Amino acid sequence: MMNSEKKSEPFVFSEEIAWETTDKGVERKILSYNKDLMMVHVRFQKGGIGKLHHHPHRQISFIVEGTFEVEIDGQKKILNKGDSFIVEADLVHGVVALEDAAILDIFTPFREDFL
After folding, report:
1. Which residue of 21, 66, 87, 104 could cross-link 62, Cys pair, CB 3.0 to 4.6 Å?
2. What percent of the chain has pLDDT over 90?
């Protein structure tokens, strides 16, 4: 579904995209994107870790299923299905899946490093 113009097709069908393993117990699908925006589905096995990191992109994340411990700029909270969080550019953040869980991440601008 990805092309050389750095944007997805207008319609993206999740079942046509393979899961990409990013770390032990963590995998993602890059869904719709253009140069300004990207949506990524990330699923975690219980205990899976989205390691503490930072990037220049702004990010909003929605908990699709399960429970996570989310850390942003040194502050930790437990988030459940239906909750969300926002990360400003360059803030250190990460997650730990407290059970099998999934997140929908939205970035602006798009994560060129993911392509």
Report:
1. 104
2. 89
Query: Strand, helix or coil at 14?
Result: helix
5-31: average pLDDT = 94
In a domain? residue 43: yes
In a domain, 21, yes or no: no
pLDDT for 93 equals 98
Which token pair is 5? 């113009």
Region 17-43 average pLDDT: 96
Structural domains of the chain, count:
1
CA–CA separation, 102 and 20 (whole Å): 14
- In angstroms, the CA 18 to CA 41 distance is 11
Report whether pLDDT(1) > 80: no
In a domain, 54, yes or no: yes
Q: Where are the beta strands (DSSP E) in the chain?
A: 20-23, 26-34, 37-44, 49-53, 58-65, 67-72, 75-80, 84-87, 93-97, 101-108
Residue 46 structural domain: 26-97
